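#onboarding

Welcome to the new folks! Below is a worked example of what a typical request in this channel looks like: someone posts a single protein sequence, and someone else replies with the predicted structure as tokens. Don't worry about understanding the tokens yet, we'll cover that in week two.

Example request:
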Amino acid sequence: MEQVLILRRSPLPLLILAILAVLLAASLVFGQWPDYAALAASLDQPLSRLRWIIGDISEVAFYKHELPALGLLLGAALAHWAHVRGYRWQGFAICYGTGLWPWLFTSSLLGLLLSHALWGWTLASGTWQPTFVAFVSLPAAMVLLFGGGWRVTLTGALLGALLVTPASLLLVNYLCYPLQLPVVIGNVGGMALASVLAFSLCKYLPSLVRDALPAVTPQAIARKPDYGVAWTLRRVLADFSEAPFFGNELASLGLLLGVLLAYVLAPGAPAYGSQLVIQIVAGQALASLVGVLFWRRQWMARGWYPTYIPIVSIVPAAVLTLGGQWQVVVSSAILGALIAPPLAVAISQRLPGHIHGYVGNVLSMAISTLGIVPLVALLAGGHS
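Example response:
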């Protein structure tokens, strides 16, 4: 009965309508979307470049479009507002209940903008470049590790643009492209290498992050999860926004509404024009569901487990590389769900204390993608 009352008090239907209204308004402002190829070919035009930059916010889920990006941010903003006020319908507390979402988002966004200012010229090559990586890596991790405040926020943004983006650019262009590897390996490999360097730098130069503001968790009603069906479905949804360190159902809902609306309005625009949005989203959902169910005891024991990893690495990489056949979708989801999370935990547990555990997650993404995608190709009968 209590869950029914909470659901009735939830503004979820209004949220869905509000997000759709904003996204539709954005569609009117931006006008008719070009397909991805046309967008990539016109990046010398200000509007196309703006679309690319906004699309970077949803790039980590392989959606690459302004509508899922805007939906993600709308949902996240509402989730933070609900968290500050302690509303039960907030879902999983955004940013792990730290109350640091404004600082985290500011640092990530500044890192993204600085990356484009410094490295946006690489897009003139005519090939895809990982300009998005600073938004979902070091800046956010630094805020979560050291706390809020302008010093940490600006340090994270600067190091993200100066270290993470060029590291990923180098790996993508000089490793992934020549060897025909999924580019996600270069993306996350650059995040890991640059982040280890950045965290080590902060250890030996603590003035970079000194005087950080501690996390302030608003007063809320503590409720122990029952890890039942409702919790499982909520956790699967929250996994979709875990990569930018949000981990919240409302943020994920905005992301998914945005990408599905983008696909309906212009199928050739999101997900690099692959027209595989439905297969990608289905595989991502299946991967999270299998992971949450299989690793349920780990969730119960630890309070958090990285079941989101195949959502932003193995599954979309396999589908985009090998095609949208059901064999590819199902095998990549299951293998990713079973292999990647425990590998991430094993790596993270061996990291020094001054390095954020997300480094283990991204290393797991790189290793798992490198090993699983070829295996999926064999299991799927060599389809490509």
